[in-house]
Amino acid sequence: MLFRVAGARDQKLGAADCRLQVDNKPDSCVTTDSEKFGEFDRGASGLLKRIALSNEFGLFALIVIAVLVFASLASGFLSNFNLYLLGRIIAVNAMIGFSMMVVLVTGGLNLAVGAIGVCVAMTCGWLIEDIGLPWYLAMLLAIGVGAGLGAINGFGVVWSGLHSFIVTLATMSIFFGGMIFLTRAESFREMPELFTEFSRLKFFGILSAMLIPTVIVAVLLGALYHFTRIGKEMLAAGAQAAAAEQSGLRVSRLFVMCHALSGAVAGCAGLMLLARNGAAIPAMAGNLGQDWLLIAFLGPVLGGTLLLGGQVSVLGAVLGAALVSILSNGLLLVQVGEFWVQACLGLMLLLAVVLDKFRRSFVQT
């Protein structure tokens, strides 16, 4: 579903005007059954046209094409094990995309999502292994750490007046370096069996249980932007920050909240990787967490979230993450080198930015 700030353009004919027209021209406001059917038919065809032209439908079509192509090229692509593996990959990639999406809504960036995710995973591992806390309490406290690190990003952006690109580029190194210093770059591998067993659960032989937290977060984010006042204020702040400020919205507070939410969601992604790997490892997201950056941008931007803010599509972010995951998995199965896979993802990012430019032009018109 695509949510954006827009003004109401529809104008309705008043009842009194309609009665006057009926008195003068009896047929002007009276519709026959055939006219009603024609209006219904036009409305239905218009709805189908909007669906067919939607970004989400285009992504779904690309996913179907990619599945058919890789199924014909790699015999094991549609095997139960690979579909289960794909579910695990999509679940984590979509969660990483959400962590960037919630900041893109306001026109900001969070380059520190990977560093925050690793910090949360390492915090959880430390609380479980060294402090001896129950895994569920350690998870909650670790996610709180992620939200706190995200809030630091938000306050840094608001206080300094710098673009979030600069602030989060700096905090990416600060957070990661601080984590390495505090943990002495040690790994935490003594995770509870129940904690790691969850990542290996499967339903119907092909669906990974790791999809459950991703679906829950997707539903919550969709409800946030569609049904809550604060979510709509976030969209308004992203569409026109100055106008939103003049209308009485506390834009600075909204920016901090979005960054805190980004940190919490990035923490969820880090915990999913912790459960999947069975250990908290400093390099689980690459050096400084940079391995997450392409994935974090690709899913939301391909899915319809504008880079300059004001428009978001949670479903599109999920489909974008699914497309990226399927392409990466399929290319590896047909024995394309890892470097070519990364090159392909880079080209997809360029394509996503071009699509974002066209979407902004469409919204402005």
Automatic annotation (TrEMBL):
<feature type="transmembrane region" description="Helical">
    <location>
        <begin position="339"/>
        <end position="355"/>
    </location>
</feature>
<dbReference type="GO" id="GO:0022857">
    <property type="term" value="F:transmembrane transporter activity"/>
</dbReference>
<feature type="transmembrane region" description="Helical">
    <location>
        <begin position="111"/>
        <end position="128"/>
    </location>
</feature>
<keyword id="KW-1003">Cell membrane</keyword>
<keyword id="KW-0472">Membrane</keyword>
<feature type="transmembrane region" description="Helical">
    <location>
        <begin position="162"/>
        <end position="182"/>
    </location>
</feature>
<protein>
    <submittedName>
        <fullName>ABC transporter permease</fullName>
    </submittedName>
</protein>
<feature type="transmembrane region" description="Helical">
    <location>
        <begin position="203"/>
        <end position="225"/>
    </location>
</feature>
<feature type="transmembrane region" description="Helical">
    <location>
        <begin position="57"/>
        <end position="78"/>
    </location>
</feature>
<dbReference type="Pfam" id="PF02653">
    <property type="entry name" value="BPD_transp_2"/>
</dbReference>
<feature type="transmembrane region" description="Helical">
    <location>
        <begin position="85"/>
        <end position="105"/>
    </location>
</feature>
<keyword id="KW-1133">Transmembrane helix</keyword>
<feature type="transmembrane region" description="Helical">
    <location>
        <begin position="294"/>
        <end position="327"/>
    </location>
</feature>
<feature type="transmembrane region" description="Helical">
    <location>
        <begin position="135"/>
        <end position="156"/>
    </location>
</feature>
<dbReference type="GO" id="GO:0005886">
    <property type="term" value="C:plasma membrane"/>
</dbReference>
<feature type="transmembrane region" description="Helical">
    <location>
        <begin position="254"/>
        <end position="274"/>
    </location>
</feature>
<dbReference type="InterPro" id="IPR001851">
    <property type="entry name" value="ABC_transp_permease"/>
</dbReference>
<keyword id="KW-0812">Transmembrane</keyword>
